[in-house]
Design brief:
With 212 residues, this protein is of the alpha+beta class. The protein is built from five helices and seven strands, in the order H-E-E-E-E-E-E-E-H-H-H-H. A four-stranded antiparallel beta sheet has the order 4-3-6-7, with no helix packed on it.
Amino acid sequence: MTIPRRSLRAAGTLAAAAVVGLTGTVLSAGPAAAHTPTWAVTCTDVSLDLTAYNSNVTNQVTVTVDGKDLLPTETFGREFHKKLELPKHDKELTVRLVVKAGDGNNFSRDETKQAPVCEGTTPSPEPSEATPSQSPSSEAPTESAKPTEGATPSEAPSESAPAAASPSPSSPDLAETGSSSATPIIGGAAVAVLLAGGGIMWSVRKRRTAQH
Protein backbone atom coordinates (compact mmCIF):
# COMPACT_ATOMS: atom_id res chain seq x y z
CA MET A 1 0.00 0.00 0.00
CA THR A 2 1.46 3.32 -1.01
CA ILE A 3 0.67 6.74 0.54
CA PRO A 4 0.45 9.65 -1.82
CA ARG A 5 3.11 12.27 -1.52
CA ARG A 6 0.55 15.05 -1.30
CA SER A 7 -0.92 13.57 1.87
CA LEU A 8 2.52 13.29 3.42
CA ARG A 9 3.24 16.92 2.61
CA ALA A 10 -0.07 18.02 4.11
CA ALA A 11 0.59 16.05 7.29
CA GLY A 12 4.07 17.60 7.61
CA THR A 13 2.66 21.07 7.17
CA LEU A 14 0.09 20.52 9.90
CA ALA A 15 2.74 19.20 12.28
CA ALA A 16 4.97 22.17 11.66
CA ALA A 17 2.09 24.56 12.27
CA ALA A 18 1.27 22.82 15.52
CA VAL A 19 4.87 23.11 16.72
CA VAL A 20 5.00 26.80 15.84
CA GLY A 21 1.73 27.41 17.64
CA LEU A 22 2.91 25.65 20.78
CA THR A 23 6.22 27.49 20.85
CA GLY A 24 4.40 30.78 20.33
CA THR A 25 2.07 30.17 23.24
CA VAL A 26 4.98 29.14 25.44
CA LEU A 27 6.96 32.23 24.51
CA SER A 28 3.96 34.49 25.09
CA ALA A 29 3.17 32.82 28.42
CA GLY A 30 6.78 33.01 29.54
CA PRO A 31 7.08 36.78 30.01
CA ALA A 32 3.49 36.95 31.25
CA ALA A 33 4.18 34.56 34.10
CA ALA A 34 7.51 36.27 34.86
CA HIS A 35 6.06 39.58 36.14
CA THR A 36 7.34 39.93 39.72
CA PRO A 37 6.37 43.13 41.54
CA THR A 38 8.35 42.82 44.75
CA TRP A 39 8.20 45.64 47.31
CA ALA A 40 8.79 46.12 51.04
CA VAL A 41 7.69 48.76 53.55
CA THR A 42 9.52 49.70 56.77
CA CYS A 43 9.03 52.52 59.25
CA THR A 44 11.40 54.76 57.25
CA ASP A 45 11.23 53.81 53.56
CA VAL A 46 9.63 51.86 50.70
CA SER A 47 11.73 49.58 48.49
CA LEU A 48 10.55 48.72 44.96
CA ASP A 49 11.94 45.85 42.86
CA LEU A 50 9.85 45.26 39.74
CA THR A 51 11.49 42.71 37.47
CA ALA A 52 10.82 40.49 34.45
CA TYR A 53 8.32 42.85 32.82
CA ASN A 54 7.77 43.12 29.08
CA SER A 55 10.23 45.64 27.73
CA ASN A 56 8.35 45.97 24.43
CA VAL A 57 5.48 47.82 26.13
CA THR A 58 5.14 50.80 28.46
CA ASN A 59 4.67 49.93 32.13
CA GLN A 60 3.72 52.40 34.86
CA VAL A 61 4.24 52.54 38.64
CA THR A 62 2.78 54.88 41.28
CA VAL A 63 3.21 54.98 45.08
CA THR A 64 1.00 56.99 47.45
CA VAL A 65 1.02 57.48 51.24
CA ASP A 66 -2.33 58.23 52.88
CA GLY A 67 -3.63 59.40 49.51
CA LYS A 68 -0.65 61.67 48.77
CA ASP A 69 1.91 60.97 46.04
CA LEU A 70 5.18 59.59 47.33
CA LEU A 71 6.21 58.52 43.82
CA PRO A 72 4.31 60.22 40.98
CA THR A 73 3.52 57.98 38.03
CA GLU A 74 6.69 56.83 36.26
CA THR A 75 7.16 54.60 33.22
CA PHE A 76 9.61 51.72 33.00
CA GLY A 77 10.53 48.80 30.77
CA ARG A 78 11.78 45.42 31.86
CA GLU A 79 12.83 46.42 35.41
CA PHE A 80 12.33 49.16 37.96
CA HIS A 81 14.28 49.57 41.21
CA LYS A 82 13.88 52.45 43.64
CA LYS A 83 13.97 53.26 47.36
CA LEU A 84 11.62 55.95 48.64
CA GLU A 85 11.94 57.71 52.01
CA LEU A 86 8.78 58.01 54.09
CA PRO A 87 7.91 61.24 55.94
CA LYS A 88 8.28 61.32 59.71
CA HIS A 89 5.17 59.99 61.42
CA ASP A 90 3.89 59.11 64.89
CA LYS A 91 1.13 56.80 63.64
CA GLU A 92 0.87 54.07 61.00
CA LEU A 93 0.84 55.12 57.35
CA THR A 94 -1.05 53.41 54.52
CA VAL A 95 1.26 52.86 51.54
CA ARG A 96 -0.33 51.96 48.19
CA LEU A 97 1.48 50.51 45.18
CA VAL A 98 -0.15 50.64 41.72
CA VAL A 99 1.59 48.90 38.79
CA LYS A 100 0.01 48.98 35.35
CA ALA A 101 1.51 46.48 32.95
CA GLY A 102 1.42 47.47 29.30
CA ASP A 103 0.79 43.91 28.13
CA GLY A 104 -2.48 43.37 30.00
CA ASN A 105 -4.47 44.40 33.05
CA ASN A 106 -4.22 40.87 34.42
CA PHE A 107 -0.53 41.59 35.11
CA SER A 108 -1.20 44.87 36.89
CA ARG A 109 -1.05 45.21 40.67
CA ASP A 110 -2.88 47.37 43.22
CA GLU A 111 -1.66 46.58 46.74
CA THR A 112 -1.46 48.36 50.11
CA LYS A 113 0.78 47.92 53.14
CA GLN A 114 1.12 49.61 56.53
CA ALA A 115 4.24 51.55 57.50
CA PRO A 116 4.81 51.07 61.26
CA VAL A 117 5.98 53.77 63.66
CA CYS A 118 9.71 53.81 64.32
CA GLU A 119 10.84 53.33 67.90
CA GLY A 120 12.78 56.58 67.81
CA THR A 121 9.62 58.56 67.11
CA THR A 122 7.59 57.12 70.02
CA PRO A 123 8.92 59.76 72.48
CA SER A 124 6.98 62.39 70.48
CA PRO A 125 3.87 61.88 72.71
CA GLU A 126 6.02 62.94 75.70
CA PRO A 127 5.10 66.65 75.29
CA SER A 128 1.60 65.69 76.43
CA GLU A 129 3.23 64.25 79.57
CA ALA A 130 5.02 67.55 80.12
CA THR A 131 1.69 69.15 80.97
CA PRO A 132 1.55 67.36 84.36
CA SER A 133 4.89 69.02 85.10
CA GLN A 134 2.96 72.27 85.16
CA SER A 135 0.91 70.96 88.09
CA PRO A 136 3.80 71.58 90.51
CA SER A 137 3.55 75.23 89.47
CA SER A 138 -0.02 75.14 90.67
CA GLU A 139 1.24 73.77 93.96
CA ALA A 140 3.74 76.61 94.19
CA PRO A 141 1.00 79.13 95.04
CA THR A 142 0.08 76.92 97.98
CA GLU A 143 3.64 77.37 99.19
CA SER A 144 3.35 81.10 98.64
CA ALA A 145 0.40 80.98 101.03
CA LYS A 146 2.82 79.98 103.75
CA PRO A 147 4.17 83.55 104.06
CA THR A 148 0.63 84.54 104.98
CA GLU A 149 1.02 82.32 108.02
CA GLY A 150 4.23 84.18 108.80
CA ALA A 151 2.26 87.41 108.59
CA THR A 152 0.21 86.44 111.64
CA PRO A 153 3.27 86.70 113.94
CA SER A 154 3.84 90.18 112.51
CA GLU A 155 0.40 91.09 113.83
CA ALA A 156 1.37 89.95 117.36
CA PRO A 157 4.13 92.58 117.67
CA SER A 158 1.64 95.18 116.51
CA GLU A 159 -0.48 94.27 119.52
CA SER A 160 2.56 94.53 121.82
CA ALA A 161 3.27 98.02 120.45
CA PRO A 162 0.29 99.54 122.25
CA ALA A 163 1.61 97.91 125.43
CA ALA A 164 4.81 99.91 124.94
CA ALA A 165 2.74 103.06 124.76
CA SER A 166 1.37 102.39 128.25
CA PRO A 167 4.42 103.99 129.93
CA SER A 168 3.35 107.31 128.36
CA PRO A 169 0.64 107.90 131.04
CA SER A 170 3.31 107.42 133.72
CA SER A 171 5.43 110.18 132.16
CA PRO A 172 3.51 112.90 134.07
CA ASP A 173 4.40 111.10 137.27
CA LEU A 174 8.04 111.41 136.28
CA ALA A 175 7.50 115.13 135.80
CA GLU A 176 6.01 115.44 139.27
CA THR A 177 8.99 113.66 140.76
CA GLY A 178 11.15 116.22 139.04
CA SER A 179 9.21 119.10 140.69
CA SER A 180 9.53 117.49 144.08
CA SER A 181 13.27 117.38 143.60
CA ALA A 182 13.21 121.18 143.10
CA THR A 183 11.64 121.79 146.53
CA PRO A 184 15.02 121.66 148.35
CA ILE A 185 16.21 124.53 146.18
CA ILE A 186 13.16 126.58 147.08
CA GLY A 187 13.67 125.76 150.75
CA GLY A 188 17.28 126.83 150.53
CA ALA A 189 16.26 130.14 149.01
CA ALA A 190 13.80 130.69 151.85
CA VAL A 191 16.49 129.97 154.42
CA ALA A 192 18.74 132.48 152.67
CA VAL A 193 15.98 135.09 152.86
CA LEU A 194 15.48 134.39 156.54
CA LEU A 195 19.20 134.71 157.22
CA ALA A 196 19.31 137.95 155.29
CA GLY A 197 16.37 139.28 157.26
CA GLY A 198 18.00 138.23 160.51
CA GLY A 199 21.18 140.01 159.54
CA ILE A 200 19.24 143.16 158.78
CA MET A 201 17.48 143.02 162.14
CA TRP A 202 20.77 142.50 163.93
CA SER A 203 22.38 145.49 162.21
CA VAL A 204 19.37 147.68 163.08
CA ARG A 205 19.57 146.69 166.74
CA LYS A 206 23.29 147.37 166.79
CA ARG A 207 22.77 150.89 165.47
CA ARG A 208 20.14 151.60 168.11
CA THR A 209 22.42 150.46 170.90
CA ALA A 210 25.20 152.61 169.50
CA GLN A 211 23.00 155.73 169.53
CA HIS A 212 22.07 155.24 173.13
